[in-house]
Structures are given as structure tokens and as C-alpha cells.
Model the fold of this input.
Amino acid sequence: MKKLKNLFLIFGVFTGLVACNDAIEIDQPGRLDADAAFQTVGDLRDGLFGVYDQFDLSPDIAFQSIFTDELSIGFDNGGQGLADYGFVLNAGSAASQVFWVNGYDQLNAASRLIEAAEIVEPEADEQGAYNQILGEAHALRAWGHFILLSYYSTDYTDDNALSIINLDFVPTIDQQLLRNTNGETFALIESDLDLAESLINEDNGVTRIGQDFVTALRARIAAYRQDYAAAANLSDQFVNNKAQYPLATRAEYEAMFLDESDGEVIFKLERTNNDTYDGQGATGSAFAGGWAGARFAFTGPGVDGSPYFEMGRSLFNLIDPADIRYDVNVHPSSVIDPDYANGVGGQDNDILVVNKYQGSEGQPLMNDLKIFRASEMYLIRAEAAVDQGNLGLAADLIQDIRDARLGTTGTAPSFGSATEAYAAILNERRVELAYEGHRYFDLKRLGSRANQGVLKDPVDCAFNGACSLSADDYRFTLPLPIVEFNANPGLREQQNPGY
Done:
């Protein structure tokens, strides 16, 4: 998609939400109507790239890393992210607003494209391309709904719990919509994925949505909903397909995060020079944007790159130095204090620099954003195995990942209980998927079963006392944002508990 980056601009005339209700305000003077903008299949293709451009993982990386236990305050921190780091979360917080606003930007863009497609008549030789574009748009809309639900629903397993506002159409200016239930949102997601599956007919690589994206998204949804029969079946399609999706070797794993290889990537958002996200973005905030590595450092990778966040000690202590994940996550310029707990050498003797997004294409801190990888499918399959009482299979799947990362063949762990197995899966996810926007959701949905919550090392929270947060804390569901209440006051009665 690098060569198509300039085509993102065409969709700018259709977006620009400030909140969900602002998505309703669509009949503004000067806007280009869909029937004028979309006249050919080529126009739809350009519009599709505009929908892709609405999706970004940098806010998730920022918020989830800071709010949980992936980070510690860096030596160059000037106050960035301290509220999130202290578990301060309310309807005026950046996270409350940004995921709501970004989510409805995404849904609005996808729904506009889907509606616009109704007025385009493809030529006979364009039908396949037309179907592909429409299928990708439906898949993106399904993904957008799922991201929103993940942040704002209190309980993924309860179909009667409040979800979000479903938006599978372009609403009119006078509509003030209320929240749907989880059951209704998941039904809409499945409907969009069914349509995507029936329409997608091309494999355009890991930066465009294909059938494997649909399967991987369904596997993740099933795990979140604890529908482990479906999760097992869906994840097995990757686990058992080692010809196409083997776990990355040590060399491939490192190259994957340098953007020199796709390794075990199923789908990613590509980032390149001069695209929409080529810049620093907001630092220490869920507003984020820009380079993924700028979520941790101001100017570049390494100690000299002015890191304002560093790796959390409780995460660092989980990673074997012989594991390739140590090299990928811990910059070689880091200063390791073996006696850090006693603080003898002071802060300058223990500097754990995050290395996962060191940069590519000559641009420091800019890397592609990995959305689905084969290793996540192994871990979903392990979850399903525990639920099905097969602790041995869960242990084997975890060991498969460890063997790939260590380059050796080890002995699988032995679990004495489901709680112990879930804890091992949660820890493996913490290491394997560090800084990829998973930790907040993982604690929310697995923490209670693993008897784990946020747990920072005492040295990382001594200054503010915000050391732990139970997995059943209300703050593992975001509040609806104040900006939405200003435009849609009826939603105040549907605010999430605790806010």
C-alpha cells in the first residue's frame, strides 16, 4: 500500500467526526456528495484506502501500555502520561474520548463507502474487484465495531449488557442514538463478516484484508466471548496450517519488527514515509497518532533517543535474556542494574529502553503495526484447551512459542489447575504481545480467571503508590466521553458503572 498513500486524501471529504453525533451532521455545505465522488470502481478503490487510513493502533499502544504494567516512567519524562499511569480515568480523559471518536470515524467512513457502492455499476470485468472492495469495507466495519465494544462494554460474555451505538448506516442530522446490547452488536459484526467472507476473492498480502483476516478476527472475538468451541476451530485453521503460518524463527521474528519480513504476520497496518501517520503525534496520551515508537521516546530508539517511558520492571523480569523477544523489546543501549530493587545505583543505573518500534525506511520510531499474528492464534487455542480441560495441550502450545523464540526444544510446563494455566497464558501474552495493544483487554477478560491484575514492580510505582489494579476494577471498561453527552444527552443515562 506504500504506492497508494496519496490516494487516502480522496476520502478526507467524507470524514472529520468530533463525536458519534457529529457523524450525524453530514449534510454540511461544501461537502462532496457520494454520487459525485464515487462514479467508478476505481473511485471506490480509492475510497477504500481512505477507510483503511482511519485505522490506527498507536492510541491503543499508548493507553494500554501506560495504564497497565508494561511501562515505567522514563528518565526524560516531563509529566507525560502521569494520569493514566496513576489509574486516573473519567469521562473527560483522553482515552474516553479518543477511542469513541476514532471508532465512529472508522464506522462512518466504512458505512459511507458501502452506501456509495450501491450507486456504482461495475463493468462485467470489474465485478470481482467491486466485490473485493465491498468485502473489505464490511470487514473493516466489523472490526471497527469490535474495537469499540472491547473498550466500552462491561462484559463481553453477556449478550444483554450494554454495548455501543451500532452504526451500519449513515444517520441523519436529527438522530440521537442510544446504545445497543452486546448481542445486537455481535450480530451486526457477524453479519458484516459473513458478507465480507462471501465477497472477498483476492489475496493481496498482509496489508489488505483477505479471508485470513476474517478468520483471525472471528477467532479473537470468540475468545473474548468465551465461545471456546468456535475459538478452537477458528484458531486451529492457523495452528494447523504451518505451511502458510509457521511461528517465526528467531531471525524472522527480529526482522518482522524491523519491517524487513512479514514473518508470521496475518494482517498489519503499514506505515511509511510521508503518509498520514508520519510524525511524532501526541506524546504520553491516548490521542497518540504518528510513529509507534514515539509512544515511548521523543527522538529515536536507545538511551540517546530521549525515552520518556521505559519498560516496566515487572515485564522485564519475565523475559529470558536468551529469548529473541528480549532483543526485540529491550534496546541494547539499556542499562541493567542487577540490584535495582535496592536502588543503590539510582535511576541512571537501571534504564530499560523499549526497542520494539525502533524504526524503518530510515525513519526512527516508525514501524508497521501488527494486528494479527500466528502466535496470537496459538495462545487463543491454548485458552480454548484450558476451557475444555486439556491442560496438556495448552502447555504444549505455550512451549511451541517458547521453543521458536529460544531456538531450542524445551520441556512443556505442567499445570496443576485451570487457574495456573490461565496465568501462564496471560504471562505469555504479556511477553509475546507486549506494546501491541492487548494488555488492557487481556487483564479485563482473563485476569480474574488467572488471579492476576495490574501489578507493577515496587520501584516503578514508589512515587505515586499506583502499584496494582484488580482485573475486576470498573476502570477496565472505559467511560462514555463527555464530548458525546454534549451532543447526545440521552446517553448520560447509559454511562458505564463507576463513572
